[in-house]
Amino acid sequence: MKQLFLTFGFLAAALPGLAATKVATLHPILADLARQVGGANVEVVEILKPGADIHHFEPAPKDLAEMRGTKLLLASGKGLESFLDKLRDSLGADVKLVEVGAKIPSIPFEEHHHEHAEKDGDEHDHHHHGAEDPHWWHSAENMKRAARVVADELSAIDPANASAYAAGAKAASKRFGELKSWAQKEIAKIGKKDRLLVTAHGAFGYFCKEYGFEPISLLGIGRSDDASSKHVAETIEEIREHGIKAIFPEDQANPKVLAEIARSTGVKIGEPLIADGTAKVAHTFETMLAHNVRSIVAALAPAAAPAK
């Protein structure tokens, strides 16, 4: 009996240290990142799940119930989740809400055309600045920064496992670097003059900056934005002028305007790209990047010569 008592006493003392830290996430890519950094020391609760629309999501009462007992809530930030202030009030002081993107350098959303601004002067309405592009997860370098942010936040609430979190962030960063190197080699197959990425929405600024593309978007950042007839006409002119090979829809938003442009120019429509990182088939950085790079290279790189 004494031995049994001692055994139970040991387990009672050990269990608090063995309990995983509960972390909630508002993006599937953040959920995967938390698992990579935290490993067995975290229990991840995905509030926004694959297939959801990040631009129109708001937590429901059932989501708030799922967050109970969490120590940390990871959000994308950069204005993507308009409901965060209200959510903070609902959660109270027991849950730390961290906007991961807040510690990642921003680029402005810039809806523009390749050379028209130079021809027509600054007053020509091709540039729309001011809005912050929230799609920071399209950059491997940003994912490395995010891994460090997550490791620091986990270490702050669970210092006993700080070294494990640091190691997890280091391993994740190494993997992101390898993925970037792979993407660079693939994209090198596309001639520099053909690195114009025409998409429906302005979601690929970080990708374009990292891999040397010129972004051309028909619409704004959100899916509710519309393209003016003037903007469509300018895009058609640019596709013809520069011999752009393909335009790209997105996995969850395929505006009719792309089909209109394809009919007018004869340009091909490429494989839909994953803009928001929430596709059911690809909702981690690795699977999203691999899909997008392969789709872009397939559409824009010269066709390989047939074997003789």
Automatic annotation (TrEMBL):
Annotated spans, Disordered: 114-134
Entry's localization field: Cell envelope
Signal peptide (from-to): 1-19
One Pfam family per UniProt: ZnuA
InterPro entries noted in UniProt: AdhesinB (IPR006129), Bact_metal-bind_prot9 (IPR050492), Lipoprotein_PsaA-like (IPR006128), ZnuA-like (IPR006127)
Alphabetized UniProt keyword annotations: Metal-binding, Signal, Transport
Family listed: Belongs to the bacterial solute-binding protein 9 family.
This protein's name: Metal ABC transporter substrate-binding protein
